[in-house]
Amino acid sequence: MSNDSVTVFADTRKAIHGSGCTQVTIPQDLTETLDIEIGDQLLFTYDQGDDAITIRPADGLSPYE
Q: Could you tell me which residue ranges the SpoVT-AbrB domain spans (predicted)?
């Protein structure tokens, strides 16, 4: 994560047990900001240095597309 980044949205959500996975909902304001629609592929990355998870549209980066 870049030091010059700006947080445009912050919220907390509870992780719940799903069907064979852990589920977290993405707030609608954030999905609208990122232009995420139902069925879109999302890329999850983890930065050990920042101890942070990043979620963004995969935009062709997914091996499943």
A: 23-58
